[in-house]
From TrEMBL:
Subcellular location: Membrane
Membrane topology note: Multi-pass membrane protein
Iron found in the keyword field: no
Lineage, opening ranks: Bacteria, Bacillati, Bacillota, Bacilli, Bacillales
Alphabetic keyword roster: Cell membrane, Membrane, Transmembrane, Transmembrane helix, Transport
Transmembrane segments: 16-34, 46-66, 78-99, 111-130, 136-155, 167-188, 224-245, 265-284, 291-311, 323-345
Source organism of this protein record: Cytobacillus dafuensis (Bacillus dafuensis)
Listed InterPro entries: Mem_transp_PIN-like
GO biological process terms held by the UniProt record: transmembrane transport
Protein name: AEC family transporter
Pfam families noted in UniProt: Mem_trans
GO cellular component, one term: membrane
Length: 352
């Protein structure tokens, strides 16, 4: 299959088409509602709180409620390792990216480049394209993100040592709790007390008692409805947020434009190049799905927490706000391009 056939197949795939159009249309709906006054100035924050405290934890947890096999377990562990390594790599790589900037501006640009909105922006898109398997891998990948965001990110922006409140935030965050609980159930389901469950055809299968998708469907079903809210509410919130900011000011900021290209284009390329080398050498093999998850997660705009650090510690807050806006617009535009690129790269056979 040549390049043009791959592009055509990708763009005519109904699942990919619906994921792209859903993302863009619902973001535009949120933007329109904010501009028309249907949404007030608090709606973006309110929606994001619902997503972060209820919908995304439910999505992360339910994604782990699946059978485990050696291939999936091995893939998950490779993603966990890469999810830790990439942030160490970006800490060093981001330095030469912004050598011409000094002081607070350089620190802010580096932290904003290292940490994207993987949870709020990335996971809903991953879920729309790759389903539960993609969300599972994305949740595992995000473990390293959380560790470095609340440690290195905080220390770099505040100039202070790590505080207890950040350690608490790191481990008591609803998404983190849901991720670790789901990861535990997924990995150790075979060692948990087993419950016999009868299928519709009368066959009996045994499942760990915490596999509520099989043992307590009455509890599992509400969680699937909550997880289904994550994507549309997140996209509405993004649109509402974009509708409340000054485009003219942001677009004329060359530093923010430079940052947006680095964050949405070069950071994913760095991941692709290194992962291709690691896969070809057999050091850290990745599947095509894993590559897609990682690229989408890394091609995300400014992380909300990273921008909040810049504002809280007076580290060029205006730059952080402009960068957040422009990188969000750039990310929305680049979604279809990256999906096509992922399929083209996957067709080379480098990733299994």
């Amino acid at each position: 299959m040549n390049m043009f056939e791959i592009i055509q197949t990708t763009l005519t795939d109904k699942n990919i088409q619906s994921a792209i159009t859903s993302t863009i249309f619902i973001i535009l709906l949120g933007f329109f509602c904010r501009k028309k006054g249907i949404f007030n100035d608090q709606i973006g924050k309110m929606l994001s709180k619902v997503v972060l405290t209820v919908a995304l934890p439910a999505m992360a947890f339910t994604s782990f409620l699946m059978d485990i096999d050696q291939k999936t377990l091995s893939e998950g562990m490779n993603i966990l390792i890469w999810g830790l390594l990439i942030y160490i790599i970006l800490i060093f790589v981001s330095k030469p990216m912004y050598l011409k900037y000094k002081g607070d501006k350089q620190d802010t640009l580096r932290v904003l480049t290292i940490f994207g909105s993987t949870t709020f922006f990335g996971i809903p898109i991953v879920g729309a394209i790759y389903g539960p398997e993609g969300v599972l891998y994305a949740s595992i990948f995000n473990i390293g993100y959380r560790i470095f965001l609340y440690s290195y990110g905080y220390i770099k922006m505040s100039g202070l040592k790590m505080e207890a409140k950040n350690i608490k935030e790191m481990f008591l965050n609803p998404i983190v709790i849901a991720t670790f609980l789901g990861l535990f159930i997924w990995m150790f389901q075979g060692y948990l007390p087993q419950v016999a469950v009868a299928a519709a055809d009368g066959t009996i299968s045994n499942f760990g008692f915490l596999r509520i998708d099989q043992t307590a469907v009455w509890l599992y079903k509400p969680m699937t409805y909550l997880s289904g809210l994550a994507s549309p509410l997140a996209w509405l919130s993004i649109g509402a947020t974009l509708g409340a900011v000054n485009f003219k000011t942001a677009i004329t900021d060359r530093t923010s434009l430079f940052y947006s290209v680095n964050k949405i284009v070069f950071v994913p390329i760095i991941n692709i190049v290194i992962l291709a080398i690691l896969s070809l050498t057999g050091i850290l093999p990745m599947s095509a799905v894993s590559l897609g998850v990682i690229v989408i997660m890394m091609a995300t705009p400014t992380a909300t927490v990273a921008a909040a650090y810049a504002i809280s510690f007076d580290k060029d807050a205006l730059l952080a706000s402009n960068a957040s806006l422009l990188s969000t617009i750039t990310a929305v535009v680049m979604i279809p391009i990256w999906i096509v690129a992922i399929n083209l790269i996957s067709s080379t056979g480098i990733f299994g």
